[in-house]
Amino acid sequence: MINEIFSTVLNDMRITYTLDSETGLAGLFIEPDKAEKYGKRRVKVNSLAEAKIIGDNYSGSYLGGTSMKYSDTTYSLKYDHLENEELDGDTVITTYLKSDAGIEARHTLSHRQGREYLTVSTEIINNSEDKIHLEMLSSFSLYNISPYSDGAGENTMTLHRLRSKWSQEGRLVSETFEDLQLEECWCYANSNSVRFGQVGSMPVKGYFPFAAVSDDKNGVIWGVQMGCPLSWQMEVTRADDGVCISGGLADREFGHWVKTVDCGENFTAPTAVISVCKGNLDDISTRLVSAQEDNLDIPQSEETLPVIFNEYCTTWGNPSYDNIKNILSAIKCKGIDYFVVDCGWFKEDGVRWDISMGDYIPSKTLFPNGIKETADLIKSYGMRAGIWFEFENVGRASKAYHNTDHLLKRDGIPLTTQNRRFWDMNDEWVINYLDERVIGFLKKNGFSYIKVDYNETIGIGCDNNDSLGEGLRQNMQGTADYFRKIKRELPDMVIENCASGGNRLEPCFMSLSSMASFSDAHECVEIPIIAANLHRAILPRQSQIWCVIRRGDSLKRIAYSVSATFLGRMCLSGDVEELTDEQWSVIDRGIAFYKKAVPVIKHGKSRRFGTRIKSERHPEGWQAVVRENGDKILCVIHTFENASGIVSIPVGNCTVKDIYSHGDMGARIENGMLILDVCEDFCGCGILLDRI
């Protein structure tokens, strides 16, 4: 029998804790307040805290290799009590579970007043008489999805995930439960699990740590996003008419993770953000991403979302005092606020930049009077001076590559990829070295912007007394701590998070950064598609989008590229010394429009309209992102191949305040619809509206 332990409404979400009187398991279920009537269903409570310890029996029902959640430890953690507290306006609900063996779990759910999301974490406490070896620990577990249909709700449930690969970040994949084989079995005797995630130090390589489950018949959607800068996993499981979604660190099977917890010690899984609402994927994504707004810790200069110039797509890894001087002359008085010296400033003559990082001694050939001269020159043009580092890795042509005592190892051998090795970010010698070569360098030379790149993954992990996965976890914690050290010692420093573009676009790294490189898609047609994808995963104000202009670009192409940056942060690069006045005029108008759009980019809710994009490399149709902030609306529209016709976008009763495009697209408001006449492929425009 299932009994209610506690239920409350937080903002517009009802949170219900339940107890299975037969098993003693406590479960957590969330739904919109005043939701639909429940259907008739067979549902068992899934524990709100899941863990497996070495020595437990493994799951039955053919789940070996697929799931570790149905363990002896999970079933032994019986409900003890619940505490509901109000702390400085926040609601904190803590559920205590205990086993007869002395293992305890503490599940904490927090809500900040007025917010549309909840944060959840799970802690395991070892009060037994011996140390334990964790193989799996969940951050969150929600069950009873969805309760509104009779039975299992056939043909009503969809799992939404964000796929990712290099230069194609954030692709939405929506699959029905039937396609995922998550239907109930005929005798309710078997469980099935879809486990997915990422292994390594690039947490967005493969999937974003994001998932949503929608009840399409009843218009309710649940969502979760984890802050986890290393290997992670999520599971969608079904054993009866209800579905459970859970997740946390990648477990032993998926991520080679084992963690020893000594007597009297504890361990806490990464925090997850969860939410539920009546609505669609854009609605739930807005709720989840809004949690990142509350975790922003940025310099004052970032409040205006300054325009960036990065010289990488101008010099292609060959910056020098001379070519930077010429670039600065070309872009002066253009409304550009940050100038970033990208990779290559340290390379030795005849050696590629991508194999020589690690020593970080400025090239005397490229910067004969020292690099401070260049930083001073940038500042003389009224811009903040930025510079590139990849300080966690060392290239095979660097001297640092041979400091093997201080590098990560696997099987006792330096962990080596094609071109790189990895610093041990918990080694005191390494931290002292980086203090000199990174923090000391920034202070000495007057740089106040650092682009932190990361162009390789550690993979399954590194040597550690517990496991490879635990070695990885500890090393990534060391990296996060070093980001925090930079912020402490240089509180005005702007930090850009880059990992071969967008491979670290997850909440932990985003909270440590001012912004992030959205992708390594520098000048390809899919840039606006990727930028729109990312509205579901990160704040647009933190999404730095490349706008690379070439001397051969048509005015239409320039407007296409510039318009894409209205989906986030504008980052210019390219052949700026060779552009015509006519080309510059299109760019100048784009910069002016961007600055008008900043209040909506900075705060707002986004909705996507248009054609389903099958191929991002060869897109067809059109796309529009409508972002609203109060009575201000920003519409960013891009057409692709075979897009001719009339584009119609619902915006409500509005007036057009400003338009950016290469030519007249006939933009107008008719009966609450924004109408554009599209007669050309690969056009881009931005439109600012005021709601009446």
Write the layout of secondary structure elements.
Blueprint: E1 2-10, E2 13-20, E3 26-32, E4 51-53, H1 72-76, E5 78-87, E6 90-98, E7 103-112, E8 118-126, E9 132-145, E10 157-165, E11 168-176, E12 192-198, E13 206-207, E14 210-215, E15 220-226, E16 232-238, E17 243-249, H2 252-255, E18 259-261, E19 266-268, E20 272-278, H3 281-294, E21 308-310, H4 312-315, H5 321-331, E22 338-341, H6 371-380, E23 384-389, E24 393-395, E25 409-410, E26 413-414, E27 420-422, H7 428-445, E28 449-452, H8 468-489, E29 494-497, H9 507-511, E30 515-517, H10 527-533, E31 543-549, H11 555-564, E32 569-574, H12 581-602, E33 605-610, E34 622-629, E35 632-639, E36 645-650, E37 654-660, E38 668-670, E39 673-678, E40 684-691
Parallel strand pairs: 21-22, 21-32, 22-23, 23-28, 28-29, 29-30, 30-31, 31-32
Antiparallel strand pairs: 1-2, 2-3, 4-9, 5-6, 6-7, 7-8, 8-19, 8-20, 9-17, 9-18, 10-11, 10-13, 10-14, 12-16, 14-15, 15-20, 16-17, 24-27, 25-26, 33-34, 34-35, 35-40, 36-39, 37-40, 38-39
Number of helices: 12
Tell me the distance between the termini: 54 Å
Number of strands: 40
Instruction: Briefly note the structural class of the backbone.
Output: alpha+beta
Radius of gyration: 26 Å
Unreliable segments (pLDDT under 50, ≥5 consecutive)? none
Biggest sheet features: 11 strands, antiparallel
Would you tell me which CATH topology of the largest domain applies? TIM Barrel
Name the CATH architecture of the largest domain.
Answer: Alpha-Beta Barrel
The fourth-level CATH homologous superfamily of the largest domain is: Aldolase class I
**Averaged pLDDT, please?**
96
Strand content: 35-45%
How many domain units?
A: 3
> Overall 3D geometry?
globular
Percent of residues in helical segments? 10-25%
- Would you state the CATH class of the largest domain? Alpha Beta
